[in-house]
């Protein structure tokens, strides 16, 4: 009974001060806001209750009222900051109520000089709390005046600096925003903040730097040349990776240097990358470190080493890294594992560590990404990776995982391993990896996952892969032909590439199936694709389809008219020499057929094009055109004499004689062989 009475009194009391918020008496209003502040601080339930009662709208009205006292507004900003620090849905409700435009508007009216008022500091704190919750859009259109004002506020007390760095770190998302931030002086501010004696300022400054550099070559090159106190930014970052620094700061500095490297601002052989950054990240992967630290370090290390063979080789030899990653696959979270407190993970990461039950999958995903990077180019490293315990079983299991990031990491690792001929013929076949891979391809709606999976499938369909026939039996032809119609260029490229591999030295039934499911209309669309890589692989597909005399004749009998139109389309188009060389090689294959030759010989326009390419000042095109002529006039084949006479009358023989003066040995051999065919 006593508890009920107290609860009723609390409700009645809250109604009183909420009613007083709307009072015209500024003193009563101030008292109500103060009581509201003490009510919401530390109470998630009370925060939710206040928001549900619609009090936020009144608080925003107070902030916007020009006649009200700055002390009252500061108190209101304190309440809003407390509400924003609640649950993510609380912050989202504040954004929905229109908090952000009011905060930016108020901040813009605050002077940025001097030490900064308490009101300015509280506005910045509130903005920081909103952006750290991850529910806020960027500042309105990155208004340049507003951005410059925000940056100026970042040069003053540590509390302002920490807030501004956090806001910018969480709000900077696109290439355009990165550039605007640099243009407004963001790089100079970050260089200054890195030298702050206060770690709670340095850490968000590192996160801001990371957000600015990510995948942006121009911005990264500018930042790499900035300095403060006589030290360049990369050297400042090296200092922040020192072992006596807090672990999250070491990791953030290593991440910033990694992003500078990947954006091209620092080379792989730069001592700050190969000797400092790489070593720091490998050290942070050790088993004695916290889970969050190991996961973040491994993911960053995978990104650092993804493209550089030198970094891959160095990493593979450093501190038993390959075996360390194997521990990631075996480690299970202890039942009494505690959630890490007080760490600050970069907003670029987006990984969460508040649920220990997800830690094992985070560990597995990180290890698989490291293995994928290490084995990307070097066969010796690849074989060391493939021999580690439980790796293949983990990959097969992870391909069927419920978590898309884990699936993606498994596919990336499999893609890296599938670059090895030995592995394709042994380990990957033994573990039947194609089956879960096909399931991923057919069931996933994740575009990135399907893209990497289809790229892996390209390797499994190579001629020497024992999985090729089994994959064909699972309806791969129809599925891949369907992928060529997808809007994403990466998917179209991988699909055509896989079909090209599938068609190489394939049985006639496979080639017929590809042509049936793909259709000549789609071939024309692919040959008109704006992505030159797709165009080249489509020509490679046609070249593989039109191989083996019997196959060439049968395919040309059914599709000869359309194929010739496609080749003429390429030869007459504005394409590079490499593209036209492929088209000429297809003609050479057609010329190798017994019946198919007539498709070329009956088309005087194509013959004249061949003659033109024989004299064009490009050796590769000359060789391809000459090889085609040689196939047309091969003297042991039926009808060779008639074809030779026609080409002699057109002047081909004379062109070949003129080409005998070439200094290129490859072209000379082709010309000599062609001349020997003439009787």
Automatic annotation (TrEMBL):
InterPro entries in the record: ARM-like, ARM-type_fold, Armadillo, ARMC8/Vid28
Main location: cytoplasm
Gene Ontology BP, a term: proteasome-mediated ubiquitin-dependent protein catabolic process
Signal peptide (from-to): none
Keywords: Cytoplasm, Nucleus, Repeat
GO cellular component, one term: nucleus
Protein location: Cytoplasm; Nucleus
Keyword RNA-binding attributed: no
Protein name: Armadillo repeat-containing protein 8
Originating organism: Scylla paramamosain
């Amino acid at each position: 009974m006593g508890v009920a009475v107290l609860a009723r009194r609390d409700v009645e009391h809250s109604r009183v001060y909420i009613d007083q918020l709307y009072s015209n008496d500024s003193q009563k209003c101030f008292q109500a806001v103060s009581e509201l502040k003490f009510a919401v601080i530390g109470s998630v339930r009370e925060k939710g209750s206040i928001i549900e009662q619609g009090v936020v709208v009144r608080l925003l009205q107070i902030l916007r009222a020009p006649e009200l006292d700055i002390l009252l507004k500061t108190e209101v900003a304190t309440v809003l900051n407390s509400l924003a620090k609640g649950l993510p849905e609380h912050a989202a409700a504040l954004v929905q109520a229109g908090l952000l435009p009011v905060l930016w508007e108020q901040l813009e009216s605050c002077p940025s000089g001097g030490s900064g008022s308490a009101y300015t500091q509280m506005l910045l704190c509130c903005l920081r709390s909103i952006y750290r919750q991850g529910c806020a859009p960027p500042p309105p259109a990155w208004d340049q005046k507003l951005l410059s004002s925000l940056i100026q506020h970042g040069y003053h007390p540590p509390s302002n600096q920490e807030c501004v760095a956090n806001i910018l770190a969480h709000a900077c998302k696109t290439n355009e925003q990165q550039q605007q931030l640099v243009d407004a002086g963001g790089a100079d501010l970050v260089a200054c903040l890195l030298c702050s004696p206060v770690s709670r300022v340095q850490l968000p400054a590192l996160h801001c730097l990371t957000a600015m550099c990510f995948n942006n070559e121009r911005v990264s090159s500018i930042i790499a040349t900035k300095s403060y106190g006589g030290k360049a930014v990369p050297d400042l970052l090296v200092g922040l990776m020192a072992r006596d620094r807090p672990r999250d700061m070491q990791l953030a500095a290593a991440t910033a240097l990694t992003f500078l490297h990947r954006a091209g601002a620092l080379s792989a052989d730069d001592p700050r990358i190969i000797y400092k950054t790489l070593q720091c990240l490998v050290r942070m992967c050790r088993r004695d470190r916290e889970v969050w630290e190991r996961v973040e370090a491994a993911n960053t290390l995978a990104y650092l080493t993804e493209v550089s063979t030198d970094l891959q080789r160095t990493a593979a030899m450093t501190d038993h890294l390959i075996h360390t990653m194997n521990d990631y696959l075996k480690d299970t979270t202890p039942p009494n594992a505690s959630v890490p407190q007080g760490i600050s993970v970069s907003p670029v990461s987006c990984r969460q560590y508040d649920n220990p039950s997800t830690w094992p999958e985070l560990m597995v995903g990180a290890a698989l990404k490291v293995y994928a990077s290490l084995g990307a180019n070097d066969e010796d490293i690849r074989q060391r990776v493939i021999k580690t315990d439980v790796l293949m079983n983990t990959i097969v299991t992870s391909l069927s995982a419920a978590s898309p990031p884990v699936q993606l990491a498994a596919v990336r690792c499999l893609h890296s391993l599938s670059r090895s001929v030995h592995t394709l013929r042994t380990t990957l076949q033994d573990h039947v990896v194609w089956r879960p891979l096909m399931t991923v391809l057919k069931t996933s709606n994740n575009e990135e996952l399907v893209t990497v999976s289809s790229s892996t499938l390209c390797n499994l369909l190579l001629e020497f892969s024992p999985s090729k026939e089994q994959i064909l039996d699972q309806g791969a032809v129809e599925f891949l032909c369907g992928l060529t119609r997808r809007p994403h260029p990466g998917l179209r490229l991988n699909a055509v590439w896989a079909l090209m591999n599938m068609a190489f030295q394939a049985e006639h039934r496979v080639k017929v199936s590809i042509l049936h499911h793909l259709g000549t209309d789609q071939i024309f669309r692919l040959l008109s694709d704006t992505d030159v890589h797709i165009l080249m692989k489509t020509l490679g597909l046609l070249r593989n389809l039109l191989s083996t005399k019997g196959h060439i004749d049968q395919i040309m009998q059914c599709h000869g008219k359309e194929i010739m139109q496609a080749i003429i389309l390429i030869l007459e188009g504005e394409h590079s020499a490499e593209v036209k060389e492929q088209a000429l090689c297809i003609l050479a294959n057609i010329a190798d057929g017994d019946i198919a030759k007539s498709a070329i010989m009956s088309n005087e326009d194509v013959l004249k094009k061949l003659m033109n390419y024989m004299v064009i000042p490009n050796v590769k095109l000359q060789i391809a055109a000459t090889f085609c002529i040689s196939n047309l006039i091969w003297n042991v084949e039926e009808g060779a004499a008639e074809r030779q006479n026609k080409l002699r009358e057109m002047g081909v023989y004379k062109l070949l004689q003129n080409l005998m003066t070439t200094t290129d040995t490859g072209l000379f051999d082709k010309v000599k062989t062609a001349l020997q065919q003439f009787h």
